[in-house]
Design goal:
The chain is of the alpha+beta class. It has four helices and three strands. The chain has one domain: Sufe protein. Chain: A, CATH 3.90.1010.10. Helices cover 48% and strands 18% of the residues. A three-stranded antiparallel β-sheet has the order 1-2-3, covered by helices on one side. Strand 2 and strand 3 form a beta hairpin. The protein is globular and about 50 Å long.
Amino acid sequence: MSLGNQLDTLYRQVIMDHYKNPRNRGELEGDSLKVNMNNPTCGDRIQLQMQVNDGKIEDAKFVGEGCSISLSSASMMTQAVKGRPVEEALQMSEIFSKMMLGEEYDEGHFDLGDIEALQGVAKFPARIKCATLAWKAMEKGLEEEDEAE
């Protein structure tokens, strides 16, 4: 098996692990920022909840329905942004968008970890919206939070 095929297999396994065993699935207790988004082309829908205090995402959870790509991406995203300053979470989202568009990106000081398993989605333009749904929900929620302050 070539290295490329080995990586594809590993990436599929990582995506399926997040799909079957999603991290941060559920609802937050108490006051939280809620964002509902859906992808009308395939029926994916997500409600992202975040607790943001003093410019930091203290917690993030999601509920929703969708394909393995959208739900595993939501799992990975919530894991990646929890405990991070809002500014860093938005930078990660920008890096992820570039990855999805097949553009050059610099991870900078971020370790994308499992998120890199989604880079193959860039080869399937119809699936990019699935992968970016949770990230777009985070951006929208943080923008609305910023405007409300």
